[in-house]
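lol forgot to send this yesterday, sorry. C-alpha cells for the thing we talked abt
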C-alpha cells in the first residue's frame, strides 16, 4: 500500500497571497489576512454545528474504496481512499462547494473557506507513530480530535477503548462525507476487536482480505454498525471560536483528558482561538498532543511561532516528544497546564 503525502510540496495559495506574504516578511510585519478578496468577510467565522450519523449508515459506505493504516501494536485503522473520494464525491453532496473551489484555485487551502480537511497530512502519521511507541492508553478517557479531517487520531482512541471521542473540523463537508464514513468503517470491526474496548489493547481483525493489514479493495456496509463505538462519538463542524461557544453551553461543559491535533498551526491568525480551546476544554490533568511542521512555507505559521505565543500566555508548558529531521522538520509536542 502506498501513501502519497503532498504537504512537503508546500501549501499552494493564490499568487497574490504569496507575493503579499513575501513583502510583509521582508518588512518584519505581522502575517496579513488572506487576500482572497472575492470572499465575503462572513466566511471567516463559520458557525458551529453538530452532526448526527444518518439513520441509513449503509448509504455512506456503499462501494467505498478504502485504505488501512497499520503500525506495530496499533489496531488497523480504515479510511476512505483520498483520490477516489475526491473523484467520486458528487457536487450535490458538497454543500460548501469546497472541491470545486479548491480545484478552480489549484490549492489545498482557502483560508476561512476550506482548511485542508479532505487530505491526511503527514504529521498525523508522526503522531500515530509516537502514540504507538509510547503505548498511550486511551481506555476510559474523553478525547477530542481537533481539526480532525479524516479522523484517524480519534478513530485510534475509539478503537483503543476511549469512553468518548469528539471529532471537530472546520468544514461540514469533511465531517459528513469523510470523518463520519471513516468512523463507520472502523465500527464495522466491532465483532473482531471487542478486546480493544475492554482493556485498550491492540486488537485487530482477521477478516478475509486483511491478513496483511490491507482491507479488500471495496468494503460495503452490511447494515448500521453496532452502537458500542458510534454511540461514544460526537461530530462538530465550524470555527474553533464557535465550536467552543457551542460546547460550553453543555451543563456541565466537557473536559477532555486528551486533545489531539495535527497540522493546525499553519496560520498565526488562528492561534488565539486554538489556545482558548486548549485552555477552556482540557482537563486540569489532561494532555494536548500537537503534531506540526517547524515552519509552513507560504502560510507563515509553524512550531516556533506557536511556541512563542504559548509562552507569552504562560498557561501551558510544552515539551517536544518526537522530532523528524528528514525532509522538512516535523515535531510532536505535548502540552499540559503549568502547576499553580
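and heres what i got for the seq, position by position
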Amino acid at each position: 500500500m502506498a501513501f502519497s503525502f503532498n504537504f512537503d510540496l508546500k501549501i499552494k495559495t493564490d499568487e497574490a497571497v504569496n507575493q503579499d506574504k513575501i513583502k510583509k516578511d521582508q518588512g518584519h510585519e505581522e502575517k496579513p489576512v488572506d487576500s482572497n478578496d472575492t470572499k465575503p468577510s462572513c466566511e471567516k467565522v463559520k458557525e458551529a454545528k453538530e452532526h448526527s450519523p444518518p439513520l441509513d449508515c449503509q448509504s455512506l459506505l456503499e462501494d467505498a474504496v478504502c485504505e488501512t493504516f497499520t503500525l506495530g501494536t496499533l489496531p488497523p485503522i480504515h479510511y476512505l481512499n483520498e483520490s477516489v473520494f475526491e473523484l467520486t464525491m458528487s457536487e450535490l453532496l458538497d454543500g460548501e462547494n469546497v472541491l470545486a473551489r479548491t480545484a478552480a484555485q489549484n490549492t489545498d487551502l482557502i483560508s476561512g473557506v476550506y482548511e485542508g480537511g479532505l487530505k491526511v497530512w503527514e504529521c498525523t502519521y508522526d503522531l500515530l507513530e509516537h502514540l504507538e511507541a509510547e503505548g498511550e492508553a486511551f481506555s476510559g478517557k474523553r478525547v477530542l480530535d481537533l481539526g480532525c479531517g479524516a479522523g484517524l487520531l480519534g478513530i485510534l482512541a475509539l478503537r483503543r477503548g476511549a469512553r468518548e471521542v469528539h471529532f471537530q473540523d472546520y468544514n461540514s463537508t469533511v465531517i459528513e462525507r469523510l470523518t463520519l464514513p471513516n468512523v463507520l468503517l472502523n465500527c464495522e470491526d466491532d465483532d473482531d476487536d471487542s478486546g480493544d474496548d475492554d482493556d485498550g489493547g491492540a486488537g485487530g481483525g482477521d477478516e478475509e482480505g486483511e491478513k496483511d493489514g490491507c482491507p479488500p479493495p471495496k468494503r460495503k456496509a452490511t447494515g448500521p454498525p453496532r452502537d458500542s463505538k458510534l454511540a461514544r462519538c460526537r461530530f462538530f463542524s465550524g470555527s474553533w471560536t464557535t465550536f467552543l461557544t457551542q460546547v460550553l453551553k453543555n451543563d456541565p461543559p466537557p473536559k477532555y483528558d486528551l486533545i489531539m491535533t495535527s497540522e493546525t498551526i499553519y496560520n498565526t491568525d488562528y492561534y488565539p482561538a486554538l489556545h482558548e480551546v486548549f485552555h477552556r476544554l482540557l482537563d486540569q490533568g489532561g494532555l494536548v498532543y500537537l503534531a506540526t511542521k517547524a515552519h509552513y512555507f507560504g502560510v507563515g505559521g509553524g512550531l516556533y511561532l506557536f511556541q512563542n505565543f504559548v509562552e507569552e500566555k504562560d498557561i501551558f508548558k510544552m515539551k517536544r516528544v518526537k522530532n523528524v529531521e528528514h525532509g522538512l522538520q516535523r515535531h510532536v509536542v505535548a502540552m499540559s497546564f503549568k502547576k499553580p
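Residues 1-43, 191-226 have pLDDT under 50 and may be disordered. anyway ping me if u want another try
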